Amino acid sequence: MEKVPMTAAGYAMLTNELKQRTTEERPRIIAAISEARAHGDLSENAEYHAAKEQQSLNEGRINELEALLGLADIIDLSKLSGDTVKFGATVSLLDEDTEEEKRYMIVGDVEADVKLGRISISSPIARALIGKSVGDSVEVTAPGGARGYEIVEVEFV
Fold this sequence. Notes:
Layout: E1 4-7, H1 8-37, H2 46-70, E2 72-75, E3 90-95, E4 101-107, E5 118-120, H3 124-129, E6 137-142, E7 145-155
Parallel strand pairs: 1-2, 4-5
Antiparallel strand pairs: 3-4, 3-7, 6-7
């Protein structure tokens, strides 16, 4: 299996979710199953079936988190520097059409969240930016159409 690149913050986020799911969610669901079982006939017990489905989803996510954490390749952002865009870089872009400035940090797939300005290393915009420097223009072909951006700043925070 391939290593999954992520920041230390992304690794901590996944570790916290795993801990929450195993120490809080799992016992809560087990208690719900036990309570529903006490109500009698399981074949027509909607509470029981709902709790079993919750258990299945929770256990599936726990397995997924354990696999991701096992394959994690934690990139130490404090050791990164330079003036070209790479994993961990925070990039300020100027939209060539709207003159709007956008700022994105390039992170691993599992920690990407556009609302927080964190884009996946495998996203079209990140793939277009990798290896470029301040002053370079890039054209990004995305589902919404082609967009042109100029790189204004590259920093490693």
